[in-house]
């Protein structure tokens, strides 16, 4: 029963906290660091444990008993084991997936500092490029862990009876206190860049290709000067090796259709327009370099998108079309359109979420000035890769702060119930999977007995 209570409280903590143990963007001060665990080529630092444990303690202010330091350590160790096993089992996430999420989180961080890199360096002690690189590493690990977790726990489900039993096992004084929540939707329109602007880029890249083939220019030099890919541009456009399926489909198809050393004609992906050179193929991996140019919408393109959303808003307000239907049919934001345009809590899939879960200060201040039921005028907002986009926001509902109960929080309790079953299964998986990798723990964590069957 003691172990079950720990699993229940850990599941509730993760559901309520927004899984902050996986976040790595908040400055938490300096910690005397050392490696406390090695799992094959992956490590857990003392600072990782310290940061996660501090966040857990802070979250206990919401009425949830935080995990112990040993439980936090075990969670981080299981994550590293899943990453190591993913490498063995060839479980991968694509570069495009990682960059999309990393860009969104990096943009939110920069918005908090008004885009001022000087303030960013003062707070984090890192440049924007350094911070973005670290965010990409964290996002990639999170996505691999989630993919492995989904594979291990595939097919698990919970019944209403199990949810009720789970809820009734929670001590009354340990029931979480949920902050005020909102349900917010958006319809995003990415301005359609004119063919004239795209043609200018295509012609520029074709000229680059001609100059390179004629010996008048060097590919790497042009990439350093003109490529708008912040990761590969300074490296002469070199992306390094990727497996099939990891890069944008149009990019990969073009690259693998080239002979070694050959340069492609311009090709368009969701990231922009590329000129690609195939450098090497090694089995299922291939190495390319590219020059990326990103078409920027003109003022006329932006205004056209604004007029479209303004008309759509009028149709919604007149009752001619439901907001969710309009979002599914018209929104260019893939992360929300399939859910009728509504933002969801990543931990339980619920449309009810705290403003903190949105992690977007622009949304926070916009909603703060809105009334429930209101739809905004078209609003311009910036994204790192797609540039300026337009959206309308719908403030559907607000829920007051309250102590957890089954009537109001069934979805959260269902997610926590499922999480506890997953954690039990993962603990069993850990005992078997640990035999496939090298694990070395610092003696200071021997007391946690994480490698022993409980």
UniProtKB/TrEMBL annotation:
<keyword id="KW-0732">Signal</keyword>
<dbReference type="InterPro" id="IPR046357">
    <property type="entry name" value="PPIase_dom_sf"/>
</dbReference>
<feature type="domain" description="PpiC">
    <location>
        <begin position="283"/>
        <end position="380"/>
    </location>
</feature>
<dbReference type="InterPro" id="IPR000297">
    <property type="entry name" value="PPIase_PpiC"/>
</dbReference>
<dbReference type="Pfam" id="PF00639">
    <property type="entry name" value="Rotamase"/>
</dbReference>
<dbReference type="InterPro" id="IPR050280">
    <property type="entry name" value="OMP_Chaperone_SurA"/>
</dbReference>
<protein>
    <submittedName>
        <fullName>Peptidylprolyl isomerase</fullName>
        <ecNumber>5.2.1.8</ecNumber>
    </submittedName>
</protein>
<dbReference type="GO" id="GO:0003755">
    <property type="term" value="F:peptidyl-prolyl cis-trans isomerase activity"/>
</dbReference>
<dbReference type="InterPro" id="IPR027304">
    <property type="entry name" value="Trigger_fact/SurA_dom_sf"/>
</dbReference>
<keyword id="KW-0413">Isomerase</keyword>
<keyword id="KW-0697">Rotamase</keyword>
<feature type="domain" description="PpiC">
    <location>
        <begin position="179"/>
        <end position="280"/>
    </location>
</feature>
<feature type="signal peptide">
    <location>
        <begin position="1"/>
        <end position="22"/>
    </location>
</feature>
<dbReference type="InterPro" id="IPR023058">
    <property type="entry name" value="PPIase_PpiC_CS"/>
</dbReference>
């Amino acid at each position: 029963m003691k172990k079950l209570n720990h699993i229940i409280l850990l599941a509730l903590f993760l559901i309520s906290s927004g899984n902050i143990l996986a976040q790595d963007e908040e400055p938490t001060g300096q910690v005397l660091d050392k490696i406390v665990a090695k799992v094959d080529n992956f490590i857990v630092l003392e600072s990782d444990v310290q940061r996660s444990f501090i966040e857990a303690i802070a979250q206990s202010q919401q009425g949830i008993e935080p995990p112990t330091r040993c439980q936090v350590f075990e969670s981080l160790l299981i994550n590293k084991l899943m990453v190591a096993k993913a490498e063995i089992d060839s479980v991968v996430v694509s570069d495009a997936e990682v960059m999309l999420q990393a860009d969104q989180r990096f943009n939110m961080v920069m918005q908090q500092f008004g885009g001022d890199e000087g303030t960013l360096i003062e707070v984090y002690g890192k440049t924007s490029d350094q911070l973005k690189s670290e965010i990409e590493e964290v996002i990639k690990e999170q996505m691999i862990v989630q993919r492995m977790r989904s594979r291990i726990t595939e097919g698990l489900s919970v019944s209403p009876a199990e949810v009720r039993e789970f809820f009734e096992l929670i001590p009354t004084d340990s029931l979480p206190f949920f902050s005020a929540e909102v349900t917010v939707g958006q319809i995003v329109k990415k301005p359609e860049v004119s063919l004239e602007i795209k043609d200018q880029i295509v012609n520029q890249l074709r000229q680059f290709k001609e100059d390179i083939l004629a010996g008048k220019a060097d590919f790497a030099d042009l990439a350093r000067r003109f490529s708008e890919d912040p990761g590969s541009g300074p490296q002469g456009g070199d992306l390094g090796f990727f497996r099939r399926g990891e890069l944008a489909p149009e990019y990969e198809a073009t690259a693998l259709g080239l002979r070694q050393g050959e340069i492609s004609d311009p090709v368009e992906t969701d990231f922009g327009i590329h000129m690609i050179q195939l450098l090497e193929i090694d089995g299922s991996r291939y190495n390319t370099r590219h020059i990326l140019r990103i078409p920027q919408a003109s003022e006329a393109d932006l205004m056209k998108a604004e007029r479209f959303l303004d008309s759509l808003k009028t149709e919604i307000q007149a009752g001619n079309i439901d907001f969710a239907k309009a979002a599914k049919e018209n929104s260019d934001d893939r992360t929300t359109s399939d859910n009728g345009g509504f933002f969801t809590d990543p931990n339980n899939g619920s449309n009810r979420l705290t403003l903190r879960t949105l992690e977007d200060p622009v949304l926070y201040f916009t909603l703060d000035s809105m009334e429930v039921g209101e739809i905004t005028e078209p609003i311009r907002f910036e994204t790192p890769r797609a540039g300026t986009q337009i959206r309308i926001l719908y403030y559907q509902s607000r829920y007051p702060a309250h102590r957890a109960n089954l009537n109001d929080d069934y979805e959260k309790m269902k997610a926590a119930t499922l999480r506890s079953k997953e954690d039990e299964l993962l603990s069993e998986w850990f005992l078997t999977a640990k035999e496939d990798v090298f694990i070395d723990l610092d003696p200071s964590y021997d007391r946690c007995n994480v490698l022993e069957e409980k």
